[in-house]
Amino acid sequence: MDIARCLDTIDRLCLRPFPAEHGWSDVGRAGPGYFMAELYTGEGEETSCETTAEDVGAHKEAVAGRLHERWGTVPAWGTLTLRVRGVRGEEIPEPWASLSQLTDEAYVWRADGTGRWVAVAVADRDPADVLRLLAVVTDTDPP
After folding, report:
1. What dihedral angle (degrees, nearest 10) is formed by the CA atoms of 96, 102, 105, 111?
2. Torsion-angle region of residue 115: left (phi > 0), alpha (psi -120 to 50) or beta?
3. Residue spans of alpha helices (H) in 25-117
4. Do 101 and 125 form a contact (C-beta atoms < 8 A)?
5. What pLDDT is stored for residue 46 in this prediction?
């Protein structure tokens, strides 16, 4: 994984206009007010062993470390309460609702000068799905 490329993707998404409709962009899911980019999936790796949760977690920490330097150190933000609130009938806005279904925790920063939020997390809640390092860029405040 190329950390510089991940950071470049996040920077581009912080400046790019959001799409008017829900769908797919060149980096992953997108919709009004958000992008959910797949920075790393572990697919296509030139290795005979399966990418482990520790590998993807290490990639997350590497990207987060650079963003901590840029926007300040933030604690990991647990998403369980969002899932519970959703089950209880509260409407959780996108992309936070989807992020909470895919991940257990994320790092979340306010991107200086953009008016946008950036989250970095590992999509690892579905054991049947490939592990993915996600970056979310949105103008919707975390609930």
Report:
1. -40
2. left
3. 53-71, 80-87, 96-102
4. yes
5. 43
For residue 9, the model assigns a pLDDT of 97
Which helix (H) or strand (E) covers residue 3, if one does? helix 3-15
**What is the dihedral sign for C-alpha 90, 115, 5, 119?**
negative
Hey, what are 44's tokens? 């296509």
53-78 burial string, b = 16+ CB within 10 Å, else e?
Answer: eebbeebbeebbeebeeeeeeeeebe
Q: Tens digit of pLDDT for each residue in 48-92?
A: 345 677 889 999 999 999 999 999 999 999 999 999 999 999 999
Q: How confident is the model at residue 1 (pLDDT cuts 50, 70, 90)?
A: low
- Distance in angstroms (rounded) separating the CA atoms of residues 119 and 111: 10
The model's pTM? 0.91
Q: Structure tokens of 28?
A: 């992953």
